[in-house]
Amino acid sequence: MSSLNPTKITEIKNNLEKRVVTLSDGTKIPCLGQGTWYMGETPKAKDEEIKALQLGIDLGMTLIDTAEMYGNGDSERLVGEAIKGRRDEVFLVSKVYPHHAGLDKLSMACENSLKRLGTDHLDLYLLHWRGRVPLEETIEGMEKLKKEGKILRWGVSNFDTADMKELWSAPNGQNCATNQVLYHLGSRGIDYDLLPWQREHNMPIMAYSPLAQGGSLRKQLINDPVIIEMAEKYDVKSLQIALAWTIRTKHVIAIPKAVQEQHVVQNAEAASIELTEEDLSILDQVFPAPKKKVPLDII
Ligand SMILES: NC(=O)c1ccc[n+]([C@@H]2O[C@H](COP(=O)([O-])OP(=O)(O)OC[C@H]3O[C@@H](n4cnc5c(N)ncnc54)[C@H](OP(=O)(O)O)[C@@H]3O)[C@@H](O)[C@H]2O)c1
C-alpha cells in the first residue's frame, strides 16, 4: 500500500487526466506514462517495482512502456505481474528487437511478449530501432498482427526525420502511431525538425529518458540555478520542472521510469505544473533549441 492518502491520489489523478495526448486514430492517452527499463532484473527489488507501477496506475500514469530487450523479458514479466487484474486500465506498450522484425520472426516475438505480459493484446507495438529488415516487411508484419487482434496499433522508436519520411511513404507507413525517441530539456535536437514534422503529420512523440536517466546531464538539470529558482516558485523539485517542460505541448507523451515512491508521485504531479510562456522562454535561454539539424540522440 502507498503511504499517500486516497484523497491526494484522486487529486493527482484528476489533474493528470486533464492532460491527454490524442493519437491519430482518436485514442486519448495520458501525457505521462511509466518506463520500465532495468525493472524485473533484481529479485530483491521486485516487490518495490511492482508497487511503484501499481501506484503509478492509481495516479493516472496508465501507459506502461516495456520491451522484449529489457532484462531479456524480465521487465515484461514484472509488468505482467503488476497489471494482473488491471489490464483494462492500462495502455500497454512493448517493443520488438530489429532482428525479430521480419515476417518470419515478428509474430513469434509478439506472441512471446504477450505470454510474458499475461495478456492477449498490446495497445502499441514498437520497432525498437531500425535494423536491416526492410521497413515494408516490418509494416506488413505489424499490419498482420493488427488484423489478428494481437496488437491494436504499431509504431517505431529511435527514428530520425529521414527515417520517418521513408516510413511515411511506404505502403501503410502512415498507420504508424508514434515514434519513441530520447527527449529532455538537455537534449532537444528533435525540436529542430523531427517534432515539427511529426506534429505536421499528426503523430505524437513518445519521449524516453525524460529525466535524462542519470549522469552529468541530469546533474546539470538538477543544479541549474534558473531551474532551481523556477522549482522554488512552483514549490516543486527541479526534475519536475524538466518533466513539465517535456510535456508542455499536446504532442508529447513522456515515460519516466521510477521505482522510489516519492519519484512516482513527483512525476505524476508534474502534470499539474503549467509552465507559462515566460517560463518557457527563460528555459529556452538556458537550454536553447538547436538552430540547425543535429542527429537524433540515442541510448
Ligand atoms: N526506445 C528506446 O530506445 C528507449 C531507450 C531508453 C529508455 N526507454 C524507455 O523510457 C523509459 C524512461 O527512460 P530511462 O529509464 O532511460 O530514464 P529516466 O526516466 O529519464 O530516468 C530514470 C531514473 O530517474 C530516477 N527518477 C525517476 N523519477 C525521479 C524524480 N522525480 N526525481 C529524481 N529522480 C527520479 C529513477 O530513479 P528510481 O527508479 O530509483 O526511482 C531512475 O534512476 C525507460 O524506462 C524505457 O521504458 C526507451
Task: Describe the protein.
With 299 residues, this protein is α/β, with parallel strands linked by helices. The chain has a single domain (6-286), classed as NADP-dependent oxidoreductase domain (TIM Barrel), CATH 3.20.20. It is built from twelve helices and ten strands. The chain has helices spanning 6-17, 46-58, 74-82, 106-117, 135-147, 161-169, 194-200, 215-223, 225-234, 238-246, 261-269, 277-286, and strands spanning 20-22, 28-30, 33-34, 63-65, 91-96, 124-127, 154-157, 179-182, 205-208, 252-254. The strands form two sheets. Strands 3-4-5-6-7-8-9-10 form an eight-stranded parallel sheet. Helix 9 crosses helix 10. The mean pLDDT is 96. Bound molecules: NADP nicotinamide-adenine-dinucleotide phosphate. NADP nicotinamide-adenine-dinucleotide phosphate is lined by residues 35-37, 65, 128, 157-158, 180, 208-214, 239, 255-260, 263, 266-267, 299.
Write the layout of secondary structure elements.
Blueprint: H1 6-17, E1 20-22, E2 28-30, E3 33-34, H2 46-58, E4 63-65, H3 74-82, E5 91-96, H4 106-117, E6 124-127, H5 135-147, E7 154-157, H6 161-169, E8 179-182, H7 194-200, E9 205-208, H8 215-223, H9 225-234, H10 238-246, E10 252-254, H11 261-269, H12 277-286
Parallel strand pairs: 3-4, 4-5, 5-6, 6-7, 7-8, 8-9, 9-10
Antiparallel strand pairs: 1-2
Helix pairs in contact: 2-3, 2-11, 9-10
Bound molecules: NADP nicotinamide-adenine-dinucleotide phosphate (NAP).
Residues 35-37, 65, 128, 157-158, 180, 208-214, 239, 255-260, 263, 266-267, 299 line the site of NADP nicotinamide-adenine-dinucleotide phosphate (NAP).
Pfam families: Aldo_ket_red
Protein name: Diketogulonate reductase-like aldo/keto reductase
Organism: Halalkalibacter nanhaiisediminis
